[in-house]
């Protein structure tokens, strides 16, 4: 469970909850995801953080220099985390798991979020509607950036 300034976790299907300590003093949370290994991913205006130990410790990724994140999504089919941010940037990021290798590509759009749908990446923009990538972008292909 999350709000703008707090994060709680349940390990017993919601019977009990415990508060997690947020990185950097608990800035305003803007996105949350849990990957296939149970790693927590959160974002605030300063970047993306992940915790592999149920929020006891938080880390950042080298190469994931992004601020004002508006979406984090775990793509189970390709075992990667997709990240978008608001602002003038038109960059989308993918974090390959378990290597934690960060890749990026310029979408040409200011995205609100991005999701895989079949062999496509589908995204929503603030003013231009829904955009569809012609084919799925492979994380290995992104590595050239």
Structure overview:
The chain has 145 residues and is mainly beta. It is built from 1 helix and 12 strands. The longest helix is centred in the last third of the chain and has 4 residues, at 139-142. It starts with 7 loop residues before the first strand and ends with a helix. 24% of the residues are buried.
Helices and strands, with pairings:
Layout: E1 8-9, E2 18-19, E3 29-34, E4 40-44, E5 47-51, E6 69-75, E7 80-85, E8 91-96, E9 101-106, E10 111-117, E11 120-125, E12 130-132, H1 139-142
Antiparallel strand pairs: 1-2, 3-4, 4-5, 6-7, 7-8, 8-9, 10-11, 11-12
How many strand elements? Answer: 12
Low-confidence stretches: none
Estimated share of beta-strand residues: 35-45%
- Roughly how many Å is the radius of gyration? 15 Å
Strand order of the largest sheet: 6-7-8-9
Q: Give the structural class.
A: mainly beta
> H/E series, N to C?
EEEEEEEEEEEEH
How many helices in DSSP terms?
1
Q: Mean pLDDT, nearest integer?
A: 84
- Main β sheet profile: 4 strands, antiparallel
- DSSP helix fraction: under 10%
In short:
With 145 residues, the protein is mainly beta. It is 3% helix and 42% strand.
Key traits:
145 residues; mainly beta; 12 strands
């Amino acid at each position: 469970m999350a709000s703008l300034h707090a994060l709680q976790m349940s390990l017993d299907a919601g019977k009990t909850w415990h508060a997690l300590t947020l990185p950097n003093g608990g800035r305003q949370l803007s996105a949350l995801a849990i990957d296939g290994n149970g790693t927590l991913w959160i974002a605030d205006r300063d970047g993306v953080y992940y915790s592999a130990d149920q929020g006891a410790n938080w880390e950042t990724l080298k190469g994931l220099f992004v601020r004002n994140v508006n979406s984090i999504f775990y793509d189970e089919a390709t075992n990667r985390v997709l990240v978008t941010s608001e602002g003038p940037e038109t960059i989308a990021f993918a974090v390959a798991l378990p290597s934690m290798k960060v890749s990026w590509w310029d979408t040409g759009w200011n995205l609100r979020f991005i999701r895989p749908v079949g062999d496509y990446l589908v995204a929503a923009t603030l003013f231009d509607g829904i955009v569809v990538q012609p084919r799925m972008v492979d994380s290995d292909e992104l590595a050239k950036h």
